Amino acid sequence: MTPDERIPVEILSGFLGSGKTTLLNRMLAKGAFRDTAVVVNELGEIALDHLLVESAPGQVALLEGGCLCCAVIDSLPETLLDLCRRRSAGELPRFGRIVIETTGLADPGPIIEVIRRSPLLAHFLSLGVIVTALDMLGGQAQVERHPEALRQLVLADRLVLTKLDLRTPLSPEECIWIAGANPLADVVTAADVLTDPALLLAPPRGPRLAGTDSPAAYSHAAHTHGVRACSFRLNEPVTRAGLAAFAAALELSFGADLLRCKGLVETRGRLLLVQGVGTRLAVSEAPPSAAGGEPHLTVIVRQRGEDEIAALLPWLHVPEGTMPPTREGLQ
């Protein structure tokens, strides 16, 4: 392919719970983006995110079982080349771009490096825009606490500020912090993208970060020490009281060490989507795209073991009317 014919690969990044999948769905809902193939990277052992992406059949490829910048980075070239092969063979619509949605714990640097430095990939693909969703309810604390979040922020061509509708307007100090952390990134809000979805993947207005052509610029930020994702299959329906009790038990047991909780649960014959960021847990009707998904929960914690989470799972099945546990009740 000539340089003008290569397919751009866009990277959609952001820390745990920052709203990446919501942004992706807004993009795909518009007809102008139906020529987009999506690669979703799932950290937990049981994949879910690809079920939540509203897309045409065959439009989503899944990389599961590990973080894209670590455990499955070697699988990425194969996945991208397979998409190109299937496109050329007519097995997929002739998409005009590929979007990689990373896990919340992925450092975009190694992904960028693979796309840029593989001669084979470079023949078919080019690096597109790097977008990072920044959660403005707790994004600054995440960046200060997690090297991955900092890498996602500083490597972005475009920052999308999310959850501004749930808080007061940005303070001057926050604006200064964002600009100082990545002064060359375009900054838009999730509301801007909702109004004009083309903003999400529009070519960046400014140059890339200085020094990003140097290998040193992609020095891999190590994962935060002790962070792990634990997945649990749920073979029995849960109760509404059980969901409230489990949420309370997680908060009381792990506090700030609880980073993310996500999954599908069945109750009273209905499939529900569970999404939690930190100790905030939300439950809603599962989208139609999740129909047939296996009930499960994936909990991402720091400095804790899988057995500690497993010990709390019985709370999911307590009878209706049961009160959530207290700290004394967990001891």
Question: Could you characterize what this model shows?
Answer:
It comes from Novosphingobium guangzhouense. GO terms for molecular function: hydrolase activity; nucleotide binding. One of its GO terms (cellular component) is cytoplasm. Keywords: Chaperone, Hydrolase, Nucleotide-binding. The structure is a single chain. The chain has 331 residues and is α/β, with parallel strands linked by helices. It has two domains: 3-218, Rossmann fold (3-Layer(aba) Sandwich), CATH 3.40.50.300; 227-330, Hypothetical Protein Yjia, Chain: A,domain 2 (2-Layer Sandwich), CATH 3.30.1220.10. The chain contains twelve helices and twelve strands. The strands form two sheets. It has a seven-stranded parallel β-sheet, with helices on both faces. It has a five-stranded antiparallel β-sheet with strand order 8-12-9-10-11.
Order the strands across the largest sheet as they lie in space. Answer: 3-2-4-1-5-6-7
CATH architecture of the largest domain: 3-Layer(aba) Sandwich
Structural class category: alpha/beta
**Overall geometry:** globular
Q: What is the CATH fold-level name of the largest domain?
A: Rossmann fold
Number of separate domains: 2
**Could you tell me the mean pLDDT?**
81
Order of helices and strands: EHEHEHEHHEHHEHEHEHEEEEHH
Helix content: 25-40%
Q: What is the CA-based Rg, rounded? A: 20 Å
Descriptive labels:
331 residues; alpha/beta; Rossmann fold; Hypothetical Protein Yjia, Chain: A,domain 2; 2 domains; seven-stranded parallel β-sheet; five-stranded antiparallel β-sheet; 12 helices; 12 strands; 29% helix; 25% strand; globular; CobW C-terminal domain-containing protein; CobW/HypB/UreG_nucleotide-bd; chaperone; CobW-likC_sf; nucleotide-binding
